[in-house]
Structure prediction request, 92 residues.
Amino acid sequence: MPKRETAVRRRITSQLDLDWVRTLNAHEAIIDAAVFSQVQATFKKRMFASGRRKHNLYLLSGLVVCARCGYRFTGWTKKGNGHIYSYYACVG
Prediction:
């Protein structure tokens, strides 16, 4: 992907983030703040322990189901020919 196209995509994504409206404490919490903080700390530890620096967001992961075997699709990223390709595949 050319650098210019990447910059344009980044700008569009950041503008979409501005459209989000976030309201804190708008409803009763499912779990308390202490448990939430513990889980977040565990996630951070696991991320650094596994050596992963970046997590790609795949919006359809776990939502799309394979018609052949019934397993859920997962998002993947591959590099090749100077490009980065994102796709979904059945893990079954």
Q: What stands out?
A: The first strand starts at residue 73 and ends at 80.
